[in-house]
Design brief:
heterodimer; A: 285 residues; mainly alpha; MetI-like fold; 2 domains; 76% helix; 0% strand; B: 291 residues; globular
């Protein structure tokens, strides 16, 4: 009896110890994860003299908004915020329209050649973007789109991911929905706008979030296409600021805060939706 | 026009807008790139380009800089993919338990994924800087002279790998967490009744049940990390001593610093071939459902 109790005791204590260890591990890693953010924010709020002193301060000894003021007055950052917003928004709207239209065509309408077309689009998933880097640049240059935001936006719309996501979702909508409407005299266009799109709101918003974030953050392609500073998006502008103000890390960090703030706000407001949007991709195969 | 023709017409009209983008910005460049790779391409006067057959591919294989870039890329992949997948699996299994504040932990682990590579690179460069960076300041208390992380040819690449893990781990974490939550709890209850240890349960239930999700993140990460570009571009400029010049960084320089468009297109096609080959092997041996 006594022996049994001791055994039980040690099982519960070892379980408690394990719970504590797991919590400690997870929270230590979480702190390591947010430390760089914290450093970015902290440095952006420090006066330049303290920021480059040999003793770093994770917590600013005094707070100033001078870096932000200098950034807004002395750089193109406002222009870059606007450019980035235009790229991300226009790309998202275009992707939602053209991807949902072709997904509707591939799942709801019967026409010769559609299955071959679908296989070609799926196969194009395998094409790494960099294979096309050089030829795409010559095409965009021929179209006169160098240093134009359209030169960033239009190639982004060709990405097949959204087509595939929507294709899978539309395919699983029961056939009867469209059929009943067709008997009521709905045209294909009306079935698309009045039935398929409203039912698909969850997947459409997931795709919208994904495309918006992707285009807000796009780096390589804009580096190639945007060649004048006035046409830059934030990811490019930040590198220029860093290289220009080498000895003013606080200023660079302030630009990082400005560029990431919209996405952090989005993440805090929509954390469940955004994580679902990522999981949608994981389940598509 | 009969009903059938009507449906065909509508089908094509609905598909057309995307197809225009697809053909102009994806399919056509893909063919154009293959064509360019067979030329000594003249970017200013393309019509004066010289056909050299597989000349670009041959000179690529003879250039030490190409092999250096390929070697660096493989090294980077080896450093990032296993660590990222294992760490995200550990975190996913941890957060799957009844832990305090798990919703916030989940969002924190995921959060760096939404940043652009230039913020990631800039913040970490300053974080690790010698002179005023906090990491080396605190290391200075425990060691004589803390390393110059990004200035050392041996350390630069591992540092880029750690930064990349921090940045992109969240994607895998979220997918693996979802996969873990889809494993039926009754399997674990049955194992418990049979007296199986936690380790046995992990090996015989968790791993096999999550196999597809794990295969998925391995393939995706392999393809993505093989194309690393932004981190060396922002943090090291391919240095020191070309120690972080990756394949895509090399391709980018060949094209846009040296104007060797045909050659760069050839490098791109080789990259394509490698990725197709590896994905095929992955698909064949890890990803299939038949086993």
């Amino acid at each position: 009896m006594n022996k049994l109790n001791v055994g039980k005791m040690s099982i519960t204590t070892s379980r408690t110890l394990r719970t504590i260890a797991i919590h400690a591990g997870l929270y230590v890693i979480a702190i390591l994860f947010v430390l760089p953010y914290f450093y970015m924010l902290s440095l952006s709020l420090q006066p330049e003299s303290i920021a480059i002193s040999s003793t770093p301060h994770l917590i600013p000894p005094e707070i100033t908004f001078a870096n932000y003021a200098e950034l807004l007055a002395g750089s193109l950052i406002v222009q870059w915020v606007i450019n980035t917003f235009i790229v991300a928004t226009v790309a998202t709207v275009l992707v939602l329209i053209v991807d949902s239209m072709i997904a509707f065509s591939l799942t709801r309408l019967n026409w010769p050649g559609q299955s071959i077309l679908l296989s070609i689009i799926i196969a194009s998933f395998m094409v790494p973007f960099y294979v096309n880097l050089v030829p795409l640049f010559t095409i965009v240059a021929d179209l006169g789109l160098v240093s134009s935001l359209l030169g960033v936006i239009l190639p982004a719309v060709a990405n097949p991911l959204g087509v595939f996501l929507l294709y899978q979702f539309f395919r699983d909508i029961p056939e009867e929905y469209g059929e009943a409407a067709r008997l009521d005299g709905f045209s294909n266009f009306q079935i698309y706008t009045h039935i398929i799109l409203p039912i698909s709101r969850p997947i459409l918003s997931a795709l919208a979030i994904f495309v918006f974030v992707f285009n807000w953050n796009q780096f390589v392609w804009p580096v190639v296409v945007l060649q004048s500073q006035g046409s830059f998006t934030l990811p490019l502008g930040l590198v220029v600021l860093r290289d220009t103000f080498t000895f003013q890390p606080g200023l660079t960090m302030a630009s990082g805060v400005i560029a990431s703030l919209p996405l952090f706000v989005l993440l805090l407001l929509l954390q469940d939706r955004i994580i679902e949007a990522v999981q949608f991709q994981g389940t598509t195969r | 026009m009969n009903l059938r023709q009507r449906e065909t017409l509508d089908g094509i009209l609905f598909a057309l807008p995307y197809l225009v983008f697809f053909c102009v910005f994806l399919l056509y460049p893909l063919l154009e790139g293959l064509y360019m790779s067979l030329f000594e391409w003249d970017p200013l006067f393309p019509s004066q380009s010289q056909f050299i057959g597989i000349g670009n591919y041959v000179s690529m294989l003879q250039e030490p800089a190409f092999w250096n870039a390929l070697g660096n890329t493989v090294y980077f992949v080896v450093l990032t993919v296993p660590t990222m997948v294992v760490l995200s699996l550990v975190l996913a299994l941890g957060v799957n338990r009844e832990v305090f504040g798990r919703r916030y932990l989940r969002t924190i682990y995921f959060s760096p994924y939404i940043l652009t590579v230039s913020i990631v690179g800039i913040v970490w460069s300053l974080f690790l800087a010698t002179g005023f960076g906090p990491v080396n300041y605190y290391l200075g208390f425990v060691m004589e002279s803390p390393p110059d992380w990004l200035g050392s040819p041996t350390l630069a690449m591992p540092v880029l790998a750690v930064v990349t893990d921090w940045w992109l781990l969240g994607f895998n974490f979220v997918i693996l967490l979802a996969a873990r939550q889809n494993v039926p709890e009754r399997l674990y209850e049955a194992a418990k009744l049979d007296g199986a240890s936690t380790w046995r349960a992990f090996r015989d239930i968790t791993l096999p049940q999550m196999r597809n999700a794990i295969a998925f993140v391995v393939i995706i990460q392999f393809i993505q990390q093989f194309q690393v570009f932004g981190q060396p571009y922002v943090m090291t400029d391919g240095g020191p001593n070309n120690a972080t010049t990756t394949l895509v960084f090399y391709l980018y320089n060949a094209a846009f610093s040296q104007q060797r468009f045909g050659y760069a297109a050839a490098v791109g096609y080789l990259l394509f071939a490698i990725l197709v080959g590896v994905s095929y092997i992955n698909y064949r041996y890890i990803g299939s459902d038949s086993a």
